[in-house]
């Protein structure tokens, strides 16, 4: 079966939108340091591009989580595979994610981070599939709302492949 990737959002569209979000974040965090938390591995491509577009001081940290249960459906119970290096007390935290789908992972993660005493916690996602939401999550910054399709690129994988595509695409099987 042949596999191909159909472009949904071009590299230029993604880059332009990241620039806009970076400007908005820079305005909203005026006079503060924004502490970006990247959720590995998917959020890493978006986070580095976004960080370059933010003009207020930025600090970064990384965490890796995996959800218990099947690999295609997240259960909502999250296991920390790699925890943050730094404490969050008093920090203005901005979690940077690749995509919000059911919302289960994020809802669990945000609650956990809020318990660590940050000054604020906000969420920034490159993509959002609102139709798929099972658990309500407040998204503060969204790159694009997309329809219910399985997408790859810009950090998102299909079986660990395609993360390095500079655009967002849909895998088609002909
Ligand atoms: P959820 O919001 O807890 O359902 O899970 C979100 C996670 O599922 C994301 O961080 C991705 O790793 C993965 N995911 C959801 N939708 C897609 C997709 O369309 N392509 C690739 N990964 C996806
Ligand atoms: Mg993810």
Question: How would you concisely characterize the structure shown here?
Answer:
The protein has helices spanning 11-28, 43-52, 104-114, and strands spanning 3-9, 34-40, 58-67, 78-82, 92-100, 120-128, 141-145, 151-152, 168-173. With 174 residues, it is α/β, with parallel strands linked by helices. It has a six-stranded mixed beta sheet. Strands 1-9-8 form a three-stranded antiparallel beta sheet.
Structure description:
- This protein has 174 residues and is α/β, with parallel strands linked by helices.
- The strands form two sheets. The protein has a six-stranded mixed β-sheet with strand order 4-3-2-5-6-7.
- Helix content is 22%, strand content 34%.
- The mean pLDDT is 94.
- It contains three helices and nine strands; from the N terminus they run βαβαβββαββββ.
- The longest helix is centred in the N-terminal third of the chain and has 18 residues.
- The protein has one domain: Rossmann fold (3-Layer(aba) Sandwich), CATH 3.40.50.2020.
- Helix 1 packs across helix 2.
- Inosinic acid (IMP) binds next to strand 5 and helix 3.
**Residue share in β-strands:** 25-35%
Please identify the structural class as seen in this structure. alpha/beta
Oligomerization state:
single chain
Under CATH, the topology can be stated as Rossmann fold
Beta strand count? 9
Helix and strand sequence? EHEHEEEHEEEE
Structural domains: how many: 1
Bound molecules: inosinic acid, magnesium ion
Overall pLDDT score = 94
Based on CA atoms alone, the radius of gyration comes out at 16 Å
User: Could you describe the largest sheet, including whether it forms a barrel?
Assistant: 6 strands, mixed
CATH architecture: 3-Layer(aba) Sandwich
- End-to-end span in angstroms? 6 Å
Which percent bin holds the helix content? 10-25%
Show unreliable segments: none
Number of helices: 3
**CATH class annotation:** Alpha Beta
Spatial order of the strands in the main sheet?
Answer: 4-3-2-5-6-7
Question: How would the global form be characterised?
Answer: globular
């Amino acid at each position: 079966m042949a596999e191909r990737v159909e472009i949904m959002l071009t590299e230029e569209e993604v880059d332009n939108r990241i620039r806009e979000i970076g400007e908005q974040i820079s305005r909203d965090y005026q006079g503060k340091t924004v502490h970006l938390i990247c959720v590995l591995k998917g959020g890493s491509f978006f986070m580095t591009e976004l960080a370059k577009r933010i003009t207020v001081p930025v600090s970064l940290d990384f965490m890796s989580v995996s959800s218990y249960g099947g690999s295609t459906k997240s259960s909502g119970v999250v296991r920390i595979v790699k925890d943050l290096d730094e404490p969050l007390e008093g920090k203005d935290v901005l979690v940077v994610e690749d995509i919000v789908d059911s919302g289960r992972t994020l809802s669990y993660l945000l609650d956990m981070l809020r318990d660590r005493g940050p000054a604020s916690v906000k969420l920034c996602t490159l993509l959002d599939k609102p139709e798929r939401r099972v658990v309500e999550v407040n998204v503060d910054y969204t790159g694009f709302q997309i329809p219910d399709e399985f997408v790859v690129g810009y950090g998102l994988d299909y079986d660990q492949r395609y993360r390095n595509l500079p655009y967002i695409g849909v895998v088609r099987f002909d």
